[in-house]
């Protein structure tokens, strides 16, 4: 065997492999002899088939098997000599050789894992949301829960924030109707943020049976590009107005929220616990987001093309599966690999960086960490024990948890390297902050 390593790009390698035809023939002859002793061919007794006949029927196939095995063997020896860690499988290509050449000549093309140079995180500033959950936050949440369970009654009063209204409307751009601009018996709750504020403001103050025309401008960044930034004239008819009737905060309401014995004090405590859990999760998510971006920004790491291609394929299939759950066939929507490339490259690079940090700093997941994470996660469900058993019944589900714990281990390590700056904010600010960067 002869090998020659070339570097066309930072991660791609080419190795030239030369295999003696004589060695191939020696191994081939040996296998033909062994096969002749047991092969069954019409007209010959077992073990008495002439070697020439065996070679005629099985020689070509056996030669390919021997050549393939020797090629793999020589390739493995070559990469071990060069101390290369390859990614994926190599691509072998036979080279043109002179007639009667005593060797088979091949080139093997493959990629290797990159050398990773971790950056200095000490100059990185990470903001940590600091949120206090007190009686005020619990009361606000309780009021939201009341509104979510409100009953509505018809009223003759003008429409106000919080009311549920039913309308007919028609929108025109330069006197022409547009897609999605007309509806009948459309119901909405004023103030829930599901419609544009200018449209909502036009309804407030109207009474059942009123008609109204008004003009409004759609935002330039509106999701529907056909009407973004355009002036629209709307005709509205208000069919009915309903006012919310909030449930009393009593034992029955506590039971509605899952407190079996209807204990009101316990209801308040569970709401507070739920808010604190939400704060903890969102705070961890924000810290993790900043740490991961910091690692990407400060680390020098080339990304193997083959791993990116594999990740792109995974993302495409994951998207198709997600669409299927919504009743949409993936074939009905063009899913070009290009739209997933940047995301796939980021994920692969981050995965390589995390693996390097885990190896260097011995951050591997311990069984007790996984157990603690599963138990904490299960506390948000009605039957925690059942959720815990569900996770431990599947190696795949446990592996997903272990991946999350591994990321947490890296984040905890990184937080000791960076400068953490506390950022006090309200619970509402934290929710908006999280949604804005999601």
UniProtKB/TrEMBL annotation:
Top EC class for this record: isomerase
Source domain of life: Bacteria
GO molecular function term, any single one: peptidyl-prolyl cis-trans isomerase activity
Compartments where found: Cytoplasm
Any single GO BP term: protein unfolding
Keyword vocabulary terms for this entry: Cell cycle, Cell division, Chaperone, Cytoplasm, Isomerase, Rotamase
Domain PPIase FKBP-type: 162-242
EC number, UniProt record: 5.2.1.8
Pfam families to which the protein is assigned, alphabetical: FKBP_C, Trigger_C, Trigger_N
Catalytic activity: [protein]-peptidylproline (omega=180) = [protein]-peptidylproline (omega=0)
GO CC list: cytoplasm
PANTHER family the record matches: TRIGGER FACTOR CHAPERONE AND PEPTIDYL-PROLYL CIS/TRANS ISOMERASE, TRIGGER FACTOR-LIKE PROTEIN TIG, CHLOROPLASTIC
Family: Belongs to the FKBP-type PPIase family. Tig subfamily.
Domain notes: Consists of 3 domains; the N-terminus binds the ribosome, the middle domain has PPIase activity, while the C-terminus has intrinsic chaperone activity on its own.
Function according to Swiss-Prot or TrEMBL: Involved in protein export. Acts as a chaperone by maintaining the newly synthesized protein in an open conformation. Functions as a peptidyl-prolyl cis-trans isomerase.
Protein name: Trigger factor
């Amino acid at each position: 065997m002869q090998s020659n390593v070339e570097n066309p790009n930072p991660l791609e390698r080419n190795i030239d492999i030369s295999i003696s035809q004589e060695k191939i023939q020696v191994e081939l002859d040996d296998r033909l002899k062994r096969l002749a002793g047991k092969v069954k061919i019409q007209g010959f007794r077992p073990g008495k088939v002439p070697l020439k006949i065996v070679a005629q029927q099985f020689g070509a196939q056996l030669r390919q098997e021997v050549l393939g095995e020797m090629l793999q063997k020589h390739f493995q020896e070559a990469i071990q000599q060069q101390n290369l860690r390859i990614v994926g499988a190599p691509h072998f290509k036979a080279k043109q050789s002179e007639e009667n050449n005593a060797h088979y000549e091949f080139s093997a093309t493959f990629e290797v894992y990159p050398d990773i140079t971790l950056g200095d995180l000490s100059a990185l500033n990470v903001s940590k949301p600091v949120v206090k959950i007190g009686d005020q936050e619990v009361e606000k949440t309780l009021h939201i829960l009341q509104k979510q369970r409100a009953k509505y009654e018809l009223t003759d009063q003008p429409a106000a924030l919080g009311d549920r209204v039913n309308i007919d409307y028609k929108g025109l751009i330069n006197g022409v109707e547009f897609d999605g601009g007309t509806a009948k018996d459309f119901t909405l709750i004023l103030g829930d943020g599901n419609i544009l504020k200018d449209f909502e403001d036009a309804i407030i103050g109207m009474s059942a049976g009123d008609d109204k025309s008004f003009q409004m401008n759609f935002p330039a960044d509106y999701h529907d590009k056909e009407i973004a930034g355009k002036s629209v004239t709307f005709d509205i008819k208000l069919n009915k107005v309903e006012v919310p009737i909030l449930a009393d905060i009593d034992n029955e309401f506590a039971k509605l929220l899952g407190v079996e014995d209807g204990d009101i004090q316990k209801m308040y405590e569970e709401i507070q616990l739920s808010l604190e859990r939400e704060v903890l999760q969102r705070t961890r998510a924000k810290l993790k987001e900043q740490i991961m971006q910091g690692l990407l920004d400060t680390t020098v790491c080339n990304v193997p093309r083959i791993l990116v291609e594999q990740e792109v394929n995974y993302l495409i299939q994951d998207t198709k599966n997600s669409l299927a759950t919504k009743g949409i066939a993936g074939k009905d929507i063009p899913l070009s690999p290009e739209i997933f490339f940047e995301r796939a490259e980021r994920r692969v690079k981050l995965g390589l960086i995390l693996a390097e940090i885990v190896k260097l700093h011995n951050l591997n997941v311990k069984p007790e960490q996984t157990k603690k994470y599963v138990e904490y996660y299960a506390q948000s469900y009605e039957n925690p024990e059942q959720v815990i058993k569900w996770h431990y019944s599947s190696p795949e589900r446990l592996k997903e948890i272990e991946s999350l714990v591994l990321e947490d281990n890296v984040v905890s390590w990184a937080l000791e390297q960076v400068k953490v700056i506390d950022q006090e904010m309200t619970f509402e600010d934290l929710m908006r902050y999280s949604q804005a960067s999601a």
